[in-house]
Amino acid sequence: MAHIGILCPGAIGHLNPMCNLGDELLRRGHKVTLFGVPDVEKKISQSNLGFYEIGASDFPIGSIDKMYAQLGQLTGLQGLKFAIQFFEKEAKMLFRDAPTAIRNNGIDLLLIDQVTTAGGTVADYLNLPFITVCNALPINREPNIPPYFTHWKYKNIWWAKLRNQVGNILINYLTRDIWDILVQQREKWHLTPLLKRDDAYSQIAQIAQLPQELDFPRKQIVPWFHYVGPLKNPLDIETVSLEQQSFSFEELNGKPLIYANLGTLQSHNWEVFRRIAEACLDIDAQLVISLGNPKADPSKTNFPGNPLVVPFPPHQQLINRSHLVITHAGSTALSCLSSGIPMVAIPITTDQPGMAARLAQIGVAEVVPLAKLNNLNLKTAIKRVFEEPTYRNNAVRLRSAIQEVGGVNYGADVVEQAINTKSPVLNSRLQILC
After folding, report:
1. What predicted TM-score, i.e. pTM, was given to this entire model?
2. How far is it, in rounded angstroms, from Cα 313 to Cα 245?
3. Integer angstrom CA distances of residue 42 from 18, 102, 211
4. Is the pLDDT of residue 265 over 80?
């Protein structure tokens, strides 16, 4: 038995897959503890993971939800910059608080979210093996692949590769403060310098929720990179939630269901929901809009038509019943593909444009960029996905590929293989424990 630690942002889209992986490792006999700021403890209370609080002075109760509410009001590059500022603050906190907490808990191996950039350096300082988990779109850089924050299509031609490199230079510039903090901390701790950004990720194993069939064709992926597929609960239960979800399925009228959901971060943008309602007026379907916030008041929305507007319904159950889903192309996209449901994507910020570009490439979605969001464009996209069976057929094909790859079971296998074969130091510690 190993004691596995988790470092992960407090967003539900990151916590859910990480907790699902942790619960599977618990089932296999390991001990799992998540190290997080105070707001995270309540969110993961429905999981079986242990919790150890860090960062309370920097992120007191309520601060994370307030920060995500601010992010939800931003779009494009502004949203990306705001997220980067948060990760910079998080990195400083982790360098100060995480080493002592992890050491005192006797952790043997760390699972570190890919966007928690400081985590790998903390693990190196403690001489602990760690595994990188890409809960969002993988941000591994290579000239062949468009940067994750762009809507660019994949093209294997010289000008596209040059364009991609310019994009990578831009994201390196935007994240330069985080990188400088990491470099300085490694110098302070007398650790081997990192030559490039991707060196901060695990050299033992990297796990991605993204199915390989959905990603652009990578040529420089490391041999220990694993496309395991969505890290879902096998029972379609959402382990991490804002609070108990509720929904009366008797209100569904039997017509094809169009489910609109912008996640929990972008859910504050009710103008997008209004445009969705307008675009669905002439479609013979039932529109259900999730406001993504249990505290939201549907009576104040006044959206056109007669959509069923609910604060915070059981997300996956509605996806499973849908004819199509209108999404911001966040973690909802993988949930839809796991159920074979096609989409209309309205990417708003961070890695959502990159995810939307991949959805369009494999023919499971129509994409309407926020800058082109109007009634005509959105209605055209919705009708196309609603009426043409190709999108659903492609989504069903992706569902089969996801089922075959293994998901959370495959991810847990990778973790256990790393425990058993990749770390002689860890192996010796486990032999003592056993």
Report:
1. 0.91
2. 5
3. 15, 20, 30
4. no
